[in-house]
Design goal:
With 219 residues, the protein is an all-alpha fold. It has two domains: 49 residues, Arc Repressor Mutant, subunit A; 143 residues, Tetracycline Repressor, domain 2 (Orthogonal Bundle), CATH 1.10.357. 63% of the residues lie in helices and 0% in strands. Helix 4 runs antiparallel to helix 6 and helix 4 crosses helix 8. The termini are far apart. The N terminus is likely disordered.
Length: 219
């Protein structure tokens, strides 16, 4: 029986181009985490095989799998932060919140593997996910956008405003996870889900949210 063929070896980088290999390793790890059926099984050997180098080559750029994994987390968070930051250009606080949530929910549903990398909890064996600064930045931005609607004078305690932001994020996370894990259910449209979630947490009629979404559609 023929043995499975090895992937072609990657040509050696020219002197001084080690950064190219580093970027390829990051891209390979990000791609594998987003597409593997069991991303928690990721190993450095798999990453090396994806790029076409010997596993030992990775150690010149990352001391272990945990360092590589956390770097991928930072990149994914940065990607989402940049996307939702477009909502800062909205002309009203409500439009900003609607656009922020719409962008976030749509990205999560359209990129289930990438979203799972950030929030799925399926971390490679023996690795600790420590690079969550971007996640805190996202939560802070969401809380600020919601507070501008529900408590613009900041009369409530900071902990209460923070809790409101967490509850809104939890609702969006639940919709994204359920929608992607059970796509064959008779779901409302994504826009209807966005309108329902934002209307509930912003204490605004869904008809108002629907109008704002239509007028400020991020797509």
């Amino acid at each position: 029986m023929a043995l499975p063929s090895e992937p072609p070896r990657r040509p050696r980088n020219a002197r001084g181009q080690g950064q190219v290999l580093r970027e390829q390793l990051i891209e390979a790890a990000a791609r594998l985490l987003a597409t593997l059926e069991q991303p928690e099984s990721l190993t450095l050997r798999q990453v090396a095989r994806e790029v076409g180098v010997a596993p030992a080559s990775i150690y010149s750029h990352f001391p272990d799998l945990g360092a590589l994994f956390n770097y991928v987390l930072e990149l994914r968070y940065r990607e989402v932060v940049e996307l939702v930051s477009a909502a800062d250009r909205a002309v009203t606080p409500l439009a900003k919140l609607v656009q922020w949530c719409a962008t976030y929910i749509r990205w999560g549903i359209e990129h289930p593997g990438e979203y799972r990398t950030l929030f799925g909890g399926r971390v490679p064996s023996g690795v600790s996910a420590t690079s969550h600064h971007g996640g805190i930045e996202l939560l802070d931005a969401l809380t600020a956008a919601l507070t501008a609607i529900t408590d613009p004078g900041h009369h409530s305690p900071p902990a209460q405003r923070r809790q409101a932001g967490i509850l809104l994020w939890t609702a969006m996370h639940g919709v994204i996870s359920a929608f992607t894990e059970h796509p064959n259910l008779a779901w409302p449209s994504i826009d209807e889900l966005i309108v329902g979630i934002v209307g509930l947490h912003a204490s605004r009629p869904q008809s108002v949210i629907a109008t704002v979404l239509k007028e400020n559609d991020p797509q």
